[in-house]
Specification:
Alpha-Beta Plaits, alpha+beta, 5 strands, 8 helices, 211 residues
């Protein structure tokens, strides 16, 4: 028996379609999922940062972002945000954590994840939230001219961009910065940022009393 190939599209009800689309917005209005929204914002911030894109060192993709090495953009942080690095999504930048295999074509990349991990002090309206970044580089690609390994340089750039900021509404700070090595020859570093956030008020309002 042959199985039909699955379609990649997901069909949602109009209510959930609006909810999901609003979650994937830089400036959501009304109801939205906080984790989805934070992941969307992080992806936009990473793929518009020229220092991060240049450090990923994907020469095949750099030709699609002609402003990357333009001195005018590199010397002005405000202009630097104009880079359209969407071509790096799911090639060098992933909105989930992954461990590479030896056959991977891309040797340097970033993955990230957002997790709600506990309710602080039994206050059900608040939630402890972790944002984990994983910077990965293959041993032959890890050297840079700065004497800093590529995965460590990416980690430095990410921490400088997010640590002790309130870009997600509340201050985030580093609670873990750990380097690791895989037997396959990949070096990687996990950076965990921590914040205290609201506990999805949308579900509280819309699901209260629903059986």
């Amino acid at each position: 028996m042959e199985f039909k190939e699955k379609t990649c599209d997901v069909v949602l009800s109009p209510t959930m379609d609006a909810y999901v689309k609003n979650s994937s917005s830089l400036h959501p209005e009304g109801n939205f999922d906080e984790i989805t929204n934070i992941k969307y914002k992080i992806m936009k911030m990473l793929t518009s940062d020229g220092d991060i894109l240049r450090t990923l060192h994907n020469t095949e993709l750099e030709k699609y972002v002609p402003t990357l090495y333009d001195p005018k953009y590199m010397n002005d942080p405000k202009l630097d945000k104009q880079h359209n690095g969407d071509v790096y999504i799911d090639t060098n930048v992933f909105n989930f954590l992954r461990i590479p295999d030896i056959a991977s074509d891309v040797k340097t990349y970033i993955g990230f994840e957002v997790d709600d991990v506990e309710i602080p002090d039994f206050n059900t309206s608040r939630m402890t939230r972790n944002i984990t970044f994983r910077t990965v580089s293959y041993k032959e690609e890890s050297k840079t001219k700065y004497g800093i390994r590529r995965q460590d340089l990416l980690a430095l750039l990410i921490r400088n961009k997010f640590n002790w900021t309130n870009k997600f509404g509340l201050s985030v700070h580093t609670i873990c910065n750990e380097g690791k090595l895989l037997e396959s020859g990949y070096y990687y570093r996990d950076i965990i940022l921590n914040m205290t956030a609201t506990n999805d008020t949308y579900d509280s309002i819309n699901n209260s009393g629903v059986v």
